[in-house]
Design brief:
The protein is an alpha/beta fold. Helices cover 42% and strands 14% of the residues. The longest helix is centred in the C-terminal third of the chain and has 16 residues. The model has no long low-confidence stretch (mean pLDDT 93). Bound molecules: fe (ii) ion.
Length: 256
């Protein structure tokens, strides 16, 4: 598995508060089958708690501390879409050496201004991935809006916690709807280091059980690997035709 959204880089935001905790979390993730981790500290016109030079220093520190571990670490950010952010986004904020960037919006309203910011980012040659769309009210109220994002060259990343129902029923229902309809490209942990339980494998298993193995692999390995290679990922992908299972009376009534 490849986890493309985590807050494990220490002392940068509301995630890990020490190098020791970061290493402990990484060990746990490796044990659960993770091979690659993208570190995505919050960025709101600047990194939340520190500046980019310190982020670089901490990234080196963590990379050295994890050097003997069987894992690849990549630096990125979770960029909050504010007016003017387009001018600040450069390769430093991209994931690893790719042109992919992880972005988030406010929870409530999706304005034309945000469409414009996303359009400008795409025009710059960047490939935005919208983090946890299922958590935003505008998607919950109109989940088919997700399809519009795909037409606008925006990828979507579901949180594992949403699949498990950790943020409540509405978010869970929305997350499943997005996956069921082929609107999701990635699933990640958004791990804030608040618990020892690492849930990405559990959510992956649920997708395997409820949908199929291909979708589970697509969201946690196939697409993330393409992203790390900076390959283009299809916005739309092949979905299995759902066959409704009808009861005897429904089948009987259909014949009349
Ligand atoms: Fe996050």
């Amino acid at each position: 598995m490849i986890d493309i959204h985590t807050h494990i880089l220490h002392n940068c935001d509301d995630g890990s508060d020490s190098l020791e905790l970061s290493i402990k979390q990484i060990k746990n993730m490796i044990e659960k089958g993770v091979t690659d981790i993208v570190l995505t500290p919050h960025y709101m016109n600047s990194y939340v708690q520190t500046d980019s030079r310190i982020i670089d220093k901490q990234f080196k520190e963590l990379s050295i501390a994890a050097a003997s571990m069987k894992v690849n670490l990549y630096k990125g950010g979770e960029i909050f879409l504010n007016p003017g952010i387009e001018d600040k986004v450069n390769s430093e904020l991209c994931i690893g050496d790719t042109s992919y960037i992880l972005v988030e919006t406010n929870m409530g309203e999706f304005t034309n201004e945000i469409y414009e910011i996303l359009f400008n980012l795409v025009q710059k040659g960047l490939k935005p991935i919208l983090a946890h769309p299922e958590r935003y009210h505008y998607i919950q109220n109109d989940p088919d809006m997700a399809e519009d994002f795909l037409h606008r060259n925006i990828y979507l990343q579901i949180n594992a916690g949403s699949i498990l129902g950790l943020y409540g029923q509405t978010i869970s229902k929305t997350a499943w709807y997005l996956i069921d309809n082929g609107f999701a490209h990635f699933m990640a942990s958004d791990n804030h280091c608040r618990t020892d339980e690492y849930i990405l494998p559990i959510a992956k298993e649920m997708i395997h059980d409820k949908i199929d193995n291909y979708t589970a692999e697509l969201l946690t390995k196939i697409n993330p690997q393409k992203m790390l290679n900076n390959e283009k990922i299809n916005y739309f992908y092949l979905q299995k035709q759902k066959i409704e299972k009808k009861g005897f009376f429904e089948r009987f009534l259909r014949k009349i």
